[in-house]
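Lab notebook, bench 4. The sequencing result for the construct came back, and we need a structural model before the next group meeting so we can plan mutations. Quick request posted to the team channel:

Model the 3D structure of this chain.
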Amino acid sequence: MYSEAKSLLYSDNRFQFPEIFTSTPSVTNSAHIAPFLHQIGSQASHIRHICLPFPTFDYPKPDSARLHKAHIKNLDLVRDTCTSIRTLELLVSPDCANYALSDLPIAAEALDLLDTHFKNILPLKEIVINFEVYPEEDPSDDLTKKLHDYGWTVKVTELPKKQWISVDDRVEFDNEEDCRAYDNEQFLIDERKRQREEEEQWLEGYYRRRRDPHWKNDSDYD
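Done. Here's the predicted structure in token form:
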């Protein structure tokens, strides 16, 4: 019973791995799937549906398309451990800047390279490209057709209306222009407050020394 339940747990669920962002410019941002797959061991063979961020390529773009090594390792790990996988879903965030999804000449080469990696995952039956979009935004018809031509499914997930949060985390705005104006105004207010505090501290020190009968030299303040 326990063994059967574990099998159903992994086979009947969708496993989504978020991006891991790093502060080191030389390190690629990617989903960190290895610890999970290694931890569950042989149970990974029951997984049928995995969702990863859409792979990124070397940037600035080279003369030829090259997948980042971190994404190659992820796809190879899925191929080697998830031997029952049927669906690989790739999530495209609304702020994703990826030349594979652009209209640049190198885009076709990048998608061909990605398709080659997918075909190496033999049990795979469906590739889903899931675009997360804000209201009234959609991937272009040309891009959708291009992805369909590879036999991939295109899915659109509409997000709540985008909000911009002020730098002090106090106010939400429905447009970037008002948010920046607020941030700039708060910066000026804070700067004026800082200057007043510095002037007050200077005057306080000055008059304290003036009242000191042992203080004879005021050249630092004149």
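The first helix runs from residue 2 to 11.
Will bring this to the meeting.
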